[in-house]
Amino acid sequence: QVLPLKVRRPPQRAPSAVCDAMKGMKKMARGTRVNRTSLRTALLSNLKKHGGRKDIKIRDVTRIASRSSEETPIEERAGFPLKLTTGGLHPKDWVTANGVKIHVDYSRASWLPDDWGQGVKQTQPTSHSTGGGGGILTTYVAPDGKSFFHKATSEQHAGRPLTIEDGWNGQVRLAKLQARQGLRLAYAQGTCGGLDKDESLFKLLAPAERRCLPSKDELHVCCVSARRAAKLEGVRDIFTVETQFQEAGVCPTWYVDEASLQDYRALGLRAVVGGKLTEARNRALRDARAKGKICVQVSDDISAWEYRDGPNAKVRSDDAMNAAHAAARRLIVSPVAASRFIVAKMRACPDPKPKLGGVYMLGSCSRTFASDAFSRQHFILGDFCVIEPSSTVRFDPVMKLKEDYDFTCSHIAKYGSVMRCNRMTLCVKHYSNTGGACTNRDKKGEEERRNIAILNAKWPGVFRANPKRKNEVIMRWRGTVPEEADDGDDVVERSSGRSRKVATSTRVAATSKVKRTVVKAPNLGDLPPGARIKRTDKVVTSPHIASRCRKVTGKTLNDVFSKATTYSKSGKTCSYSISDLKYDLQRGYLSLTGGCAR
After folding, report:
1. How far apart are CA 233 and CA 433, in angstroms?
2. Residue 185: which pLDDT band, with cuts at 50, 70 and 90?
3. Quick check: 281 and 306 in contact, CB under 8 A?
4. Whose CA is closest to 451, among 412, 383, 396, 381?
5. DSSP 8-class letter at 307
6. What is the DSSP string of 42-98?
7. Which of 95, 295, 305, 415 could form a disulfide with 288 if both were Cys (CB 3.0 to 4.6 A apart)?
8. Rounded (10°) CA dihedral 65, 70, 72, 76
9. pLDDT for the residue 130
10. Going by C-beta distance under 8 Å and a sequence separation of 6 or more, which residues neighbour residue 550?
11. Is the pLDDT of residue 19 over 50?
12. CA distance 36 to 42
């Protein structure tokens, strides 16, 4: 009798559709971040789904974004014409020459005139379809209802070239709509990828601190800006900041240069002449004091405020701090909530009571997860700070840059402390934008060095050169131990403006890590690693060679090259290398004693 063979069946797998759904659920659980283009992404995704094509990729969007994109009236979309022509075709009736429906877009081309509109339409597969993208085509609609797919054909129909001047009003409207719609979508999205409610942050306050929580009416919000209202990038940044305060119930005042005043007012902003940087800051302080309100000073390029809530790392190491930072609960909060939170901490803390508060100066606070969440004698970044109305300290008008360092020192010297929230960070760009304080910098760094010299003269022993960044400093107030001082990365990590700029790009990088430098073991050749470096009597005429010889004298080769030893050369920071050592030995500036041959 022949027994039937037993065939081993492969393990059952879930259908691919089920797997995809499970992946999507996991992704949604983590939170899909919303930004200013989320509604347009949702519109295109919905059109592709309704089109029924199976040969194109469809991006995942949140349910809230998908529903909002369909429910938003076409009049509130950037593609809707700014003015309707009498006798022209209404956008609700837009169709192509072949009768395909054109849907009003959430975006708008920079050259599109006010009486033109922009939409999107579904497409069908052709012989050129690759099975990836596609499915949607951007369409430009003239006042008479005729549609075009390219700028060149649109210009032919208009009978003239179309430039950015034609589309300026449309771009301003686009910036306003995207800022408002993106923020409202973020509020609707909530903790799962959007903005957290203010109460989520306030719950972290102790009962005594909550009793010191000021109302939003006690804030005088001052946006310090200059020469940014005539550029599209600047307009987008301005409305990103303005909208976040407006939606939180506070109308900010813009302190700007006199030449740009009308440009800012043309955007519908409450703008006053502030003068240059420190002059504008001081006028804001005077105005807030006259009103008896807390002065909240804000830069014009902040896109998000983030707070990390979690326990410290058990050990002070890069891996442990990164792990603690990643495990901490992440809150994206409104600037008004952030201001009130810091003031509550200031007013409830033990003496000496601070009158200046602010946030951590880097884009990531991972390195703070081995120290206190709040510090009292550290640098307060000028991009976002709160000042009590009773403070009489003012910004030094002589300083054009680094005025916030001097302002911090003045407050510590007069009032004994400041309040820095080390777990709160900003998403900003500063060095890469146009206008504002960036115009005070020069390529040679002369203005930076002039202001550093002022700091050193006013506050001797408090500042030292930053070994990682040219023309930057590290602040350590007198009496603080080195472990508690700000380390070498005391300049805010700025984005390029291509979204990270959160609420620019409008998101804060969630995976920021502590940057670690690994020093490779050098190849010393026949030089004994235990040999000690000794300075000879030969005179060194070059300043940078003399400096590096002083730094390595008395150390063993192993001590010098097991970790980076730096020196300054022509204003640049250089690492002491094997070739430097051989040169100094050959010239007779240094000699070696002791050690064991290899």
Report:
1. 8
2. confident
3. no
4. 396
5. E
6. HHHHHHHHHHT-SSS------HHHHHHHHHS-GGGSTTS-SSPPTTPPPGGG-B-TT
7. 295
8. 110
9. 55
10. 535
11. no
12. 12
Q: What is the DSSP string of 356-404?
A: EEEE-SSS--GGGTTS-SEESSS---TTEEEE-TT------TT-SSSHH
Yes or no: say if 354 and 343 are a contact pair by the CB < 8 Å rule: no
Tokens of 146: 């005729």
* Residue of 498, 502, 492, 503 whose CA lies nearest to 233: 498
Considering only CA atoms, which of 524, 525, 526, 527 is closest in space to residue 591?
527
pLDDT tens by residue, 325-373: 999 999 989 999 999 999 999 999 999 999 999 999 988 999 999 999 9
The string of DSSP codes covering 527-585 is S-TTPEEEE-S-----HHHHHHHHHHTT-BHHHHHSS--EEEETTEEEE--HHHHHHHH
Identify the bridge partners of residue 425 per DSSP, sorted by sequence position.
306
- Collapse the DSSP code of 207 into the 3-class scheme (helix H, G, I; strand E, B; otherwise coil) and give the result: helix
390: left (phi over 0), alpha (psi -120 to 50) or beta: alpha
Single-letter code of the amino acid located at 13 = R
Q: Any idea what the Cα angle at residue 271 is, between residues 266 and 274, rounded to 5°?
A: 130
Residues 330, 344 contacting (CB under 8 angstroms): no
Name the 3-class secondary structure at 280: helix
What is the rounded CA–CA span in Å between residue 278 and residue 409? 16
Alpha carbon distance 305, 508 (integer Å): 8
- Residue 540: per-residue pLDDT: 87
Distances (CA, A) of 71 to 76, 239, 310: 10, 23, 38
Residues forming beta bridges with residue 147, ordered by sequence position: 141
d(CA 197, CA 413): 36
C-alpha–C-alpha distance, residues 88 and 92, integer Å: 12
Length of the chain: 598
H/E element holding 182? Answer: helix 168-189
Q: Are strands 294-299 and 302-309 parallel, antiparallel or unpaired?
A: unpaired
pLDDT, tens only, 107-137: 999 999 999 999 999 887 665 555 555 678 9
- The residue type at 156: Q
